[in-house]
Amino acid sequence: MRVELVEFPGLKRVIEAEVSPEESVDALKRAYEELRHRVRLPGFRKGHIPRPVLERYFRKDVEANVRERLLNQGLEEAIEKYGLDLATHPKLVKDLAFTPGELCRFHLEVELKPKISLKPLETFQVVDDSNVSVADDEVLSMLAYLQKVNAPYASLSSGDTLLPEDLARLKGVFHAEGGEAHEVELEGIVDSEFRLILDPRHAPLQPESPWDGEGDFVYAGDFPYLPGIPEIVRGKRGTFRARLVHAQRKRLPVLDDEFAKDLGLSTLDELKGRIRDDIQREKELRARELMKEKVANAIMEGHDVGLPEGVLEEAIQRHVAALDRSGDHKDTNKDKVHALVARQLKWYYLSEALTRQAGIEVADAEVEAFLRRRFSDKGVALPPGLHDEARRVLLDEKLYDYLLANVTLRRGDAA
């Protein structure tokens, strides 16, 4: 087979291949020989079916198979001959009209990965202004949050005044438009405007007028579709008039060793130490992610990478489609999407070249150990199909460690 490469501006290339009549005949002959030893037909011994009989039953399939083989052969020969590093699957732009015994020609359009000349990593300066120390105020703030979250509710007495964040239960009658009336009981958190929050993901029930907790609660409008709304009135329009029948308020527990024991620790000091460790670990993770972004930005700014136009266009289409599926249309500006996807693609090719330069690899045992830590230790079976994703995560972490060890770090003042 004769293969030639036609170059175009950028990274587009066309592989022109030519199959001689003799090659097409030989390819077809080999295909029928392979088929003869695979199939069985009534009245014939396996491996002794005459070719005319095979042609009668399988001609279209065999010729389609030969055509596909010749296309793959032409692609493989061009890759080896010209040292091509493909960024896309080949696209057939001139069909292979396969006719046994005749000259066959076909053209495959491909795009190449950009060739990147990497600069020495020490030439890139990155400022490390991270601060992972934990202040006492941060520990106390988290302790106060835990105190509030773990505070039990206690019933209010008749003389208490209802306050925001109290848990209130209302009982009354909902008069639907059209004359229907239903007894309804609701429970929710009271906010600063004395509205009733039944579900934090949805708008609260807004009373018609201010409600002090002692007078009637009047709500006019459509009852929302919420789990906290009785099914009989969900979505109906009308007026709900109710009174407070029960209220509870959180009683903050004393911050002492007993409080720490309720959270599974021995002493309050041990709880504070655990909080400090957790905050520091979270800060270290955030600082690491920020440094990864800084290092990537510095390296990207120092390299010009020509992107395959077809690959970029397909990546943009996938990004827009993902936004459409999620219903998130705030970032569908064409220029912004183009810049975002182009940046991601540029880093993909740069990180691929850097990984090769560093000789970074991830062994199967590392992948298995990573997945066991994530899932098996928690008593969860390993979900299928996660090995490739785990390998990518480990490669990314190894690459970052390599980059951090080789770029020039300059200590800056923490913000």
- Supply the CATH architecture of the largest domain: Orthogonal Bundle
Instruction: Compute the number of helices.
Output: 9
User: At the first level of CATH, what is the class of the largest domain?
Assistant: Mainly Alpha
Tell me the domain tally: 3
CATH homologous superfamily heading of the largest domain:
Trigger factor, C-terminal domain
CATH topology of the largest domain: Trigger factor, domain 2
- Mean pLDDT, all residues: 89
Number-wise, the strands total 12
- Overall geometry comes to elongated
Percentage of residues in helical conformation? 40-55%
| Element order: H for helix, E for strand | EEHHEEEHEEEEEEHHHHHHE
Structural class: alpha+beta
Distance from N terminus to C terminus (CA atoms, Å) equals: 65 Å
Let me know the largest β-sheet.
6 strands, antiparallel
What is the strand content? 15-25%
Poorly predicted residue ranges: none
Structure, explained:
It is a single chain. This protein has helices at residues 21-36, 51-82, 136-149, 257-262, 268-301, 309-326, 334-358, 364-374, 387-406; strands at residues 2-7, 12-19, 91-94, 104-111, 125-128, 153-155, 167-176, 181-190, 196-197, 217-222, 237-250, 408-411. It is elongated, with a radius of gyration of 35 Å. Helix 1 (21-36) packs across helix 2 (51-82), helix 3 (136-149) crosses helix 5 (268-301) and helix 6 packs across helix 7 (334-358). With 415 residues, it is of the alpha+beta class. It folds into three domains: 2-111, Alpha-Beta Plaits (2-Layer Sandwich); 152-250, Chitinase A, domain 3 (Roll); 276-411, Trigger factor, domain 2 (Orthogonal Bundle).
